[in-house]
Design a protein that fits this description.
The complex is a heterotrimer of chains A (146), B (453) and C (741). Chain A is mainly α and 146 residues long. Chain A has a domain at 57-145. Chain A has four helices and no strands. Chain A has helices spanning 40-54, 57-83, 88-112, 123-145. The longest helix of chain A is centred in the middle third of the chain and has 27 residues, at 57-83. Chain B has three domains: 20-280, Rossmann fold (3-Layer(aba) Sandwich), CATH 3.40.50; 286-402, Immunoglobulin-like; 414-444. Helix content of chain B is 17%, strand content 32%. In chain B, the strands form eight sheets. Chain B has a seven-stranded mixed sheet with strand order 2-1-5-6-15-14-12, with helices on both faces. In chain B, strand 24 (355-359) and strand 25 form a beta hairpin. In chain B, helix 3 packs parallel to helix 4. The termini of chain B are far apart. Chain C folds into two domains: 8-366, no CATH class; 517-722, 3-Layer(aba) Sandwich (Rossmann fold), CATH 3.40.50.12610. In chain C, strands 3-4-8-7 form a four-stranded mixed sheet, with helices on both faces. In chain C, helix 4 (53-67) crosses helix 6, helix 8 packs antiparallel against helix 23 (412-434) and helix 27 (563-574) packs across helix 29 (610-620). Chain C starts with a helix and ends in a 19-residue tail after the last helix. Classes of the chains: A mainly alpha (146), B alpha+beta (453), C mainly alpha (741). Chains in contact: A-B, A-C, B-C. Chains A and C meet through helix 1, helix 3 and helix 4 of A and helix 11, helix 13, helix 15 and helix 16 of C. Chain C: One of its GO terms (cellular component) is oligosaccharyltransferase complex. Chain C: One of its GO terms (molecular function) is metal ion binding. Chain C: It is a multi-pass membrane protein.
């Protein structure tokens, strides 16, 4: 059963969700349905199922990169908590690189994940913008880490 | 012509001392007929190279200054009988003379009352005379039995030793001095004053005409009374007060004296007069800084830069000479004294003893090495050496202590703690590059999703 | 019907070209008007840097141009704040100097050697032309009407609120900062409308440039997150908002941390925490939207509420914990005083004493903005009619800027752009409706149920105006207002904001102009008659000017970064000579400069500022300097015979009135500022001697005497020189003090 979209959406005219809301309902009647009083684990499982089956490959690539960035950022943060934050500028630079890249990649995902061209820009233009932003980010980070 | 040359050489041979600050000496006597009483003194002074001019204080051509400059380098004032020293020797003129680096030796006498002009002049210098200005020092244990058997007003004293353990002695030696009719002085609190010869503990002063003063009017007693006092101004001009002018007379230069408890001996007044006039007119006790150098402790560093950085190794050296009668010799810091360097910004951050590192023929080089403090600002190298009887050394050189430049901090790869984050950053950049390559080779998102997976 | 020749020009594609060309011409004219209206002081006096702060910027720019960028970046200034020095390279906003330096080098590269002084003087007018252009771009994003942009550009070009800080010669950070502010906002609006990373990155880059230029960048740092937050609260989350905000935050914050003066503030300071908070919030909202696509409604609601509560609690608690433990610095004093207006007077008197930090009087709004101020609320209301994302921005900016402009006079400057935008919107709406030659058609049912996000109350259909009479009346009155606006702006610029304040001009009784050039006279005396390293002590107001014009090291200057040092100077000025002299000696002061307006009636002199010196000194030494001691028993602040002993013995009083009585017949010395007669005798100065007094006695310079050669007290030395006999020390009671070696 396809998730319903709110009829009177107060969001902007363009679709706001990054997911490719399928316009056709799923044919199989597998464990895609969700009872109204399902537990949290079942909700999470259902979400994962939907996600794995409906995202295109390019977007999965993006998601993999984002997961890698979360890992790198998390490791740096844990190291900072454990071993202190000297030199502070290096910590900020490394951590901000991970966070910034994550955010840029998420923006790229929003712009390219559905073929309806979510925000009105073509995928090539979005990718070019992404590279532009990333280069600026890397330049600042390398300068900051000294 | 050979006789001229011979004469010149003779003159040079006779000269075995010369003041370091000029040779024009003016002696003021009120009554110039009296100069014969001091003929040995004049002869000694001239033998040491001074041009002695003897004028009367009442003379009209007498002028201490000519066109705004000093006309003489040194002044020797013998006490007048009348009220003052004349119109061209007012206290203001005399202090101006000192402010322009002139040296003065003032002799007082207990026989006559000192004029109030002289008394107020001395008060400016914080040297106090008795209120009635006509007292004389008396000691019942150290007097000359031969000439002052009843009055006990001719003191017979040893020459003074060093003032303190860290001060060089300029007036010491064997023998006794005869000091007839001393006018006593006491010194105030000023740090510029030093006593050259103090009265012994058994001395006191009284007014011969009026007897002992009341208890609360007593000027001072014992060694608080000074017979010879010295005042060295901040520009090192010297003002010496000799309480007994008669001790400079010819007859006392080689008199025979006998204390109540001692034997008959001959005085060494002439020697003492030489030491006193040598000090008063800057033949001894004169220090000179030849050179000050400071630089970084690295090889081939520039001399005397105007900017240092915090935490730099720095070497400072100062070259000091001392003038002894007629030549400059290396200066040795006396006794347990120390020549110190202060590296100061509002208050000293370092105070270090300068060690003598090497000597030249005429000077000693003192130096030290230290690390500039971790505080940026405008600092100065200060050497402030003011000791009794030595001219003052006051050197101040301002330098800037700057902070680390942006490229003088340790680079991040040199700090082991930062490797994790450097790795993090470069892994992000590497991952980005890999991602871009893979993206460009991957298929774009198409309309029908059933075709994917 | 064959198209008339005019139709060819006015209609179709060539019509568009014509209109485009017309727009360009109009914008160029506006830029030219903006530049030329700022040149009054250059024409009347000369091309000179004005006031106080610009002199420091000028000196820094000269240093940059002479020594290169890296020397500038590492510059340790040993000619200010003697003897502490100042790490100037790391404690200023370099944007302005670097901009001037770049322009200087570009012009030299084109073999047009322009003196750096002229570049600095004319930079502000040049950038004001660019600001007008940026306003055009910004307002065109807000409204479809072509006239709105042009009107906004015209308003911004000549409005006095902006001119006050950008006349020729006012070489201060606001000269380029306002241009960058408007341009950054334009890029931000573009980014929100387009949702592209490129616009977000450009916003971040210009934001970084703005951070390097002005301390008021904190305004942008808080306004953009507030905009996003309001959009989120209104339920208007969209990917465009996410993309533009996160790109701006990530790149902008990193960029701002490259400036040494800002350093780690974006992470540490409360001023920047709202941006971080909104960043976190928008991540959560984006994630929630992402999940929502996979879940049916009810489950989503459950998940959402629990997640919201959890994260909000954690976030808020974390923030409080970090603030309390001191990891995050609280609001800095300058910005805290905007919320608690009484704070600065008690705790940071230096901030309270600056005249620009006083609250705004209501006439100032009319003075600086004229008729824009009543068009402004109308324009804001009009934004509610359309209420797209960019209009929300206008509303928020207006509210925030209005509050700040009411609190501090200096912040009128940040209000001016949005007033111009809103007023232009309102006025263009009026003109678009009233200036049409054709009669309107009556299709009222056109837009009934389209997606209207505006206020319900504003949803009336707009039809048009029929009557010629009303059209002509309205158009005529609007034209009249516009003409009066121009006249007002020009008059205000000419009379109020074009004074160099280094050179004062007044009128003699017969109407001819009387130039008072005392400041420069004194500074040039210093420059030509004192050794290169002579240290000058004066009150901090004049520090930058002394450094710039006299080129001598100063003790304190307008940067006011070290309150204790300023308090030391205040203590030296307000204590008796015996206390001040050791302070002067310790700080190696050679000359003391004091400003005295008593002869001319110049009321900005140091005696009028004296109580601030006392207050600041009292803040550090409450036992030694007491403000109460300077007021008479009746509570008055007097300088004549009834002045308190503390006042009469203070160094400032003595320096101001030394020898003043010699100008007047005996007993009639008059201080024209305080309006009182002064005591017959001139105060006696022992430790200073007068070095220079300017022509109208406005600037007086005193040389600090060296220690007395004979070790005497200075008062005794002066008495001896005057011929007074020194009295013997009085007999001391009690045991004698013996002299030891």
């Amino acid at each position: 059963m396809a998730p319903k979209r709110h009829a009177a959406s107060t969001t902007s005219a363009a679709p706001s969700t990054p997911t490719p809301a399928p316009t056709t309902p799923k044919l199989s009647s597998g464990p895609a349905t969700l009872k109204t009083n399902a537990s949290a684990a079942e909700i999470a499982g259902h979400v994962w199922q939907q996600y794995a089956s409906t995202t295109p490959q390019r977007t999965l690539l993006l998601d993999a990169f984002m997961a890698f960035l979360v890992l790198v950022g998390g490791l740096q943060f844990v190291y900072c908590v454990l071993a202190g934050n000297y030199p502070f500028n290096a910590f900020l630079s490394g951590f901000s690189a991970a966070v910034g890249q994550f955010v840029l990649t998420a923006s790229l995902r929003m712009q390219t994940s559905d073929s309806e061209q979510g925000t009105g820009t073509s995928h090539e233009r979005a990718f070019a913008d992404y590279i532009f932003g990333s280069l600026i980010l890397h330049f600042f980070c390398v300068n900051f880490i000294n | 012509m050979r006789w001229c040359l011979a004469l010149l050489i003779c003159c040079l041979a006779v000269v075995n001392a010369l003041s370091s600050s000029g040779s024009r000496l003016l002696a003021i006597l009120e009554d110039t007929e009296q100069k014969d009483l001091y003929s040995t003194l004049w002869a000694d002074l001239e033998a040491r190279g001074y041009d002695v001019s003897i004028e009367s204080s009442k003379s009209e051509q007498l002028a201490l200054f000519k066109h705004g400059e000093r006309a003489y380098d040194h002044l020797l004032i013998l006490p007048p009988k009348s009220k003052g020293l004349g119109p061209s020797l007012t206290p203001k003129h005399i202090l101006d003379f000192m402010n322009k680096d002139g040296n003065i030796l003032l002799a007082l006498s207990g026989k006559t009352a000192t004029s109030s002009a002289i008394s107020s002049l001395l008060l400016e210098l914080d040297i106090h005379l008795s209120t009635d200005r006509s007292q004389v020092v008396v000691d019942h244990f150290n007097y000359d039995t031969l000439s002052a058997a009843e009055k006990h007003d001719v003191l017979v004293l040893q020459r003074p030793g060093p003032l303190r353990s860290d001060v060089k002695a300029f007036f010491d030696g064997e023998g006794v001095l005869a000091l007839p009719r001393v006018a006593p002085q006491t010194l105030g609190d000023s740090a510029l004053l030093s006593p050259i010869l103090r009265a012994p503990a058994t001395a006191y002063s009284y007014n011969p005409k009026e007897g002992m003063p009341a208890a609360e009017d007593i000027l001072a007693t014992g060694s608080q009374l000074n017979i010879v006092s010295a005042m060295q101004a901040r520009n090192s001009a010297r003002f010496t007060v000799l309480g007994s002018v008669e001790s400079l007379e010819d007859k006392w230069f080689s008199a025979s004296v006998k204390t109540p408890s001692g034997k008959k001996t001959s005085t060494v007044n002439r020697e003492f007069a030489k030491q006193l006039t040598a000090w008063a007119f800057k033949e001894t006790g004169v220090l000179k800084v030849d050179k000050v150098e400071h630089r970084l402790a690295t090889e081939g560093a520039e001399l005397n830069p105007s900017i240092y950085r915090i935490k730099n190794e720095t070497i400072y050296s100062i070259e000091v000479s001392e003038y002894v009668y007629d030549k400059w010799v290396p200066f040795d810091v006396p006794g347990d004294d120390a020549l110190q360097l202060e590296f100061t910004m509002l208050s000293p951050f370092h105070r270090l003893t300068l060690q003598p590192t090497h000597r030249t023929d005429t000077s000693t080089v003192f130096s030290t090495q230290f690390v500039t403090p971790d505080q940026h600002g405008i600092f100065s190298f200060r050497v402030n050496y003011k000791r009794p009887f030595l001219t003052s050394i006051e050197e101040k050189h301002e330098v800037t202590n700057r902070h680390f430049a942006h490229d003088e901090y340790p680079r991040s790869w040199a700090i082991t703690g930062g490797w994790v984050w450097i790795a993090g950053l470069w892994s992000v950049i590497g991952g980005f590059l890999a991602f871009v390559i893979v993206w460009l080779y991957s298929a774009p998102v198409t309309d029908t999703l059933k075709k994917t997976q | 019907m064959a198209p008339s020749s005019l139709d060819v020009v006015l209609k179709g594609s060539s019509g568009r070209n014509t209109r485009g060309l017309l727009r360009v011409i109009i914008l160029c004219t506006i830029a030219a008007a903006a530049v030329s209206s700022r040149l009054f002081s250059v024409i009347r006096f000369e091309s000179i840097i004005h006031e106080f702060d610009p002199w420091f910027n000028f000196r820094a720019t000269k240093y940059l141009v002479e020594n290169g960028f890296y020397s500038f970046w590492d510059w340790f200034d040993d000619r200010t704040w003697h003897p502490l020095g100042r790490v100037t390279g790391g404690t200023l906003y370099p944007g302005l100097m670097v901009t001037s330096g770049v322009i200087y080098h570009i012009l030299r590269l084109l073999t047009i050697p322009v003196d750096i002084r002229n570049i600095c003087v004319l930079l502000a007018p040049g950038f004001s032309g660019l600001t007008a252009l940026a306003m055009y771009l910004l307002t065109s994003e807000m409204s479809d009407s072509p006239s709105a942009g042009l009107l906004a550009a015209a308003f911004m070009g000549i409005t006095p609120g902006y001119i006050s800080r950008s006349v020729a010669g006012s070489y201060d950070n606001e000269a380029i900062a306002i241009f960058l502010l408007v341009f950054t906002f334009y890029l931000w609006i573009k980014a929100v409308k387009n949702g592209s990373i490129m616009w977000g990155a450009l916003t971040a880059l210009f934001y970084g440039y703005m951070v390097s230029a002005w301390g008021g960048y904190v305004f942008i740092t808080n306004l953009i997150p507030l905009h996003v937050f309001v959009l989120l609260c209104m339920g208007r989350y969209s990917t465009r908002v996410y993309i533009s905000y996160t790109t701006w935050y990530a790149l902008g914050t990193l960029g701002s941390m490259q400036i040494p003066f800002v350093g780690f503030l974006p992470i540490r300071n409360s001023d920047h925490m709202s941006a971080l908070g909104v960043f976190g919030l928008i991540q959560l909202v984006a994630f929630a939207e992402f999940i929502r696509g996979y879940l049916p409604g009810k489950q989503f609601q459950k998940l959402l509420t629990s997640m919201v509560l959890l994260t909000f609690g954690l976030g808020f608690g974390g923030l409080v914990l970090l603030s309390v433990s001191g990891v995050i610095a609280p609001w800095s004093g300058r910005f805290y005083s905007l919320w608690d207006t009484g704070y600065a007077k008690i705790h940071i008197p230096i901030i309270a004493s600056v005249s620009e930090h006083q609250p705004t009087a209501w006439p100032a709004f009319f003075f600086d903005l004229n008729f824009l101020i009543w068009l402004f609320p109308a324009g804001v209301f009009m934004c509610f009619q359309k209420l797209k994302d960019e209009h929300v921005f206008v509303v928020i900016y207006s509210v925030l800027a209005s509050y700040f402009a009411g609190v501090m006079v200096r912040l009128m400057l940040t209000l001016t752009p949005i007033v111009c935008v809103a007023a232009a919107l309102a006025l263009s709406c009026i003109l678009d409706n009233f200036l049409v030659a054709s009669t309107p058609s009556t299709e009222t049912k056109a837009k009934a149920t389209t997606e209207d996000k505006s206020l319900r109350s504003a949803r009336n259909p707009v039809v048009g105006i029929y009557s010629w009479f009303s059209k002509s009346v309205v158009v005529a009155s609007v034209t009249l207002y516009l003409l009066m606006f121009v006249a007002h702006c020009t008059w205000v610029t000419s009379n109020a904001y074009s004074s160099p304040s280094v050179v004062l001009a007044s009128k003699l009784p017969d109407g001819s102009q009387f130039i008072i050039d005392d400041y420069r006279e004194a500074y040039y005396w210093l420059r030509q008659n004192t050794p290169d390293n002579a240290k000058i002590m004066s009150w901090w107001d004049y520090g930058y000017q002394i450094g710039g014009m006299a080129d001598r090291p100063t003790l304190v200057d307008n940067n006011t970064w070290n309150n204790t040092h300023i308090a030391t100077v205040g203590k030296a000025m307000s204590s008796r000579e015996e206390v001040s002299y050791p302070i002067l000696r310790q700080h190696d002061v050679d000359y003391v400069l004091v400003v005295f307006g008593g002869l001319l009636g110049y009321s900005g002199d140091d005696l009028n500022k004296f109580l601030w010196m006392v207050r600041i000194a009292e803040g550090i030494w409450p036992d030694e300097v007491k403000e109460r001691d300077f007021f008479t028993a009746r509570g008055e602040y007097r300088v004549d015979e009834e002045a308190t002993p503390a006042m009469k013995n203070s160094l400032m009083y003595k320096m101001s009135y030394h020898n003043y009585q010699s100008l007047f017949p005996a007993g009639q010395a008059m201080d024209r500022v305080r309006g009182t007669r002064l005591p017959k005798e001139s105060p006696q100065l022992n430790t200073l001697e007068e070095a220079f007094t300017s022509e109208n006695w406005i600037v007086r310079l005193y040389k600090v005497k060296d220690l007395d050669n004979l070790g005497r007290d200075h008062s005794n030395a002066v008495a001896f020189d005057k011929g007074l006999k020194r009295k013997r020390a009085t007999k001391r009671k009690g045991p004698r003090v013996l002299r030891t070696e």
